[in-house]
Design a protein that fits this description.
The chain has two domains: 107 residues, no CATH class; 259 residues, Rossmann fold (3-Layer(aba) Sandwich). It is built from 14 helices and twelve strands. Strand 5 and strand 6 form a beta hairpin. Helix 13 crosses helix 14. The protein is globular. The N terminus is likely disordered.
Length: 390
């Protein structure tokens, strides 16, 4: 209980109005029902990092005056250290849910509007490379007025980026009439099961069993759940790994042996391998000279890019006027190479912008924006002191 008292004092600092009731909706086994938040001994609350972030994002979705900042995230990590759980489920003792209401979630928040980098506690900095100035998240969303596809290039274990993706999707949905989500993290032959889950036809448990999900799917779960709640379309954009693996072993020509049904899950053959800057960048990443083995690996990379681009282009064609937020590893979209370049081939009329988001140990507090501006239309630096999700 001493721990509760110590953290209880911190709650008051984060949220003076923490005594007020707020409703948080969770969605895995633990949070199947709405919960009231007011006062609850924290020893009954067990929460993983993923769930803490999810609770924060759900709560902030209900409260427009909530701000995500560096202190919030660090405090979430402290909670996770005190109440660790196996896996990514947060849960409450069912007998105590009815005996107590919960103040715990209040620790995750402060009560000021989301603002630009002028606030030194914000765990990210956004730079508009064309305007040559730092901007706020709302300004970033406003700048998308004449954009059809937004590429958000991330580092897959960047916890701040994952929260930003949620905030960006939510802000876009509130700002524009038609918004959809596209994800590298979901593969094309899972589109049916994804659609069934979003439509409420199957349970999340069945979705997680039947779909091929990344090991860190819980990092992306909040955006999927938000899309489900808001009835937004979600594209499973990527190529199935069994086919990229086949290309790694046998080259792109090995795809010719596939059935028509299998080929329908991929970009149309033949696939442009985009030799030039992207190829050189890939070889630099591998640190190897050109060989047949590295060529095949590069071809599997271009299969990813081409399939995501082709599916995004077709997705946009099916939803006239939609703004698509595509989440991807930044190698696929930095410098508008990779998937962005492939999309320009498949759907040249689409207006595209790209965001390059990453953590930088040296330049977060004093960024040398000029050295990053080639990476994208917008560059987001995230606080390197915030723990990674893996």
């Amino acid at each position: 209980m001493a721990t509760f008292v110590r953290y209880g004092k911190a709650f008051a600092a984060f949220c003076p109005a923490g005594g007020q009731h707020a409703t948080a909706i969770g969605s895995t086994h633990a949070f199947a029902k709405p919960m009231l938040i007011s006062s609850f001994p924290l020893r009954w609350l067990k929460c993983s990092l993923h769930d803490a972030l999810y609770i924060f994002m759900v709560f902030s979705n209900k409260c427009a005056n909530v701000r995500l900042n560096r202190t919030n995230i660090k405090f979430i990590l402290k909670i996770n250290a005190v109440w660790p759980t196996a896996g990514a489920n947060a849960y409450l003792s069912s007998m105590n849910v009815f005996k107590h209401t919960i103040a715990a979630v209040a620790v995750l928040f402060s009560v000021a509007p989301l603002v630009a980098r002028q606030d030194p506690t914000t765990p990210y900095r956004i730079y508009d490379t064309r305007a040559e100035r730092e901007i706020s998240l709302p300004e970033l969303v406003d700048a998308m007025q004449h954009v059809d596809v937004v590429f958000f290039g991330e580092e897959h274990n960047d916890s701040v980026a994952h929260v930003l993706q949620y905030e960006l999707l939510r802000a876009m949905n509130e700002r524009y009439d038609s918004v959809a989500l596209s994800m590298e993290m979901l593969v094309s032959d899972d589109q049916l099961v994804l659609d069934e889950y979003l439509a409420g036809l199957i349970t999340e448990l069945n979705f997680r069993r039947d779909a091929v999900l990344w090991k860190n799917y819980d990092d992306y779960r909040p955006v999927v759940e938000y899309a489900k709640t808001q009835q937004l379309k979600v594209l499973a954009a990527n190529a199935p790994s069994r086919y990229t693996n086949r290309v790694t072993r046998g080259g792109l020509e090995s795809l010719e042996a596939l059935s028509d049904a299998a080929k329908a899950l991929l970009a149309p053959l033949p696939i442009d391998t985009l030799t030039g800057a992207y190829h050189e960048k890939f070889n630099t990443l591998l640190g190897e000279h050109q060989s047949m083995a590295t060529l095949k690996i590069y071809q599997s990379q271009t299969l990813w890019d081409a399939t995501m681009a082709y599916r995004i282009g077709r997705f946009a064609g099916e939803l006239p006027g939609v703004k698509i937020l595509h989440l991807t590893g930044r190698f696929h979209s930095d410098e508008k190479l990779g998937t962005v370049a492939q999309l320009a081939r498949y759907a040249p009329a689409l207006r595209v912008c790209n965001i390059s988001c990453f953590s930088h140990m040296l330049f977060f507090d004093d960024p040398q924006w000029e050295s990053f501006r080639h990476l994208g239309d917008y560059v987001i630096l995230t606080d390197p002191s915030v723990d990674r999700t893996f």
